[in-house]
């Protein structure tokens, strides 16, 4: 079902100089969009300097000092409030924990959900819960212990799981 080569456009255009791509005239008076000197940011310091100076001042050059071995995201600490704490586990977990007569509190690992710190905004339901996090605010800790729960520091709980190099 392929088209025969002799009928293709490329065969018809043989012998025609520009081969269907327009007249690319390389002269200083005609910088057409097809020429390499018009592609992208070419000529920003030369033939396109007026445009760069007018619309993109400060595009060229450096400023400031280099910072070698920069450690990024050192202060990365996503937070979650107490009122959103139970949304991190299923509703069924909360209902089963309330029905449970043995008093086993459910464990909510906030680090698994992508949070590091628990903050104290909002109220907790009156049922004990064990919360694992890297950091707790003072109010969050008070409120969790106020409903009979416990605050477990995530690094201490998972101390044996990581091999220190």
UniProtKB/TrEMBL annotation:
GO terms for cellular component: cytosolic large ribosomal subunit. GO terms for molecular function: structural constituent of ribosome. Residues 79-152 form the Large ribosomal subunit protein uL15/eL18 domain. Pfam families: Ribosomal_L27A (PF00828). InterPro entries: Ribosomal_uL15/eL18, Ribosomal_uL15/eL18_sf, Ribosomal_uL15_CS. GO terms for biological process: translation. Belongs to the universal ribosomal protein uL15 family. This is Large ribosomal subunit protein uL15. The lineage of its organism: Eukaryota, Metazoa, Chordata, Craniata, Vertebrata. The gene is ORF.
């Amino acid at each position: 079902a392929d088209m025969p080569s002799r009928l293709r456009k490329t065969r018809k255009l043989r012998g025609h100089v520009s081969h269907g791509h327009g007249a690319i005239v390389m002269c200083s008076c005609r910088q057409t969009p097809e020429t390499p000197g018009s592609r992208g940011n070419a000529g920003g310091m030369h033939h396109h300097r007026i445009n760069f100076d007018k619309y993109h001042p400060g595009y060229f050059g450096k400023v400031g000092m280099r910072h070698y071995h920069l450690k990024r995201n050192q202060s990365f600490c996503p937070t979650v409030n107490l009122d959103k704490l139970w949304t991190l586990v299923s509703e069924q977990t909360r209902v089963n924990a309330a029905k449970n007569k043995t008093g086993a509190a459910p464990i909510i690992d906030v680090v698994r959900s992508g949070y590091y710190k628990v903050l104290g905004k909002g109220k907790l339901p009156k049922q004990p819960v064990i919360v694992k996090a890297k950091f707790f605010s003072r109010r969050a800790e008070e409120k969790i212990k106020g409903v009979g729960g416990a605050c477990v520091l995530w690094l201490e709980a998972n101390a044996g799981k990581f091999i220190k190099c």
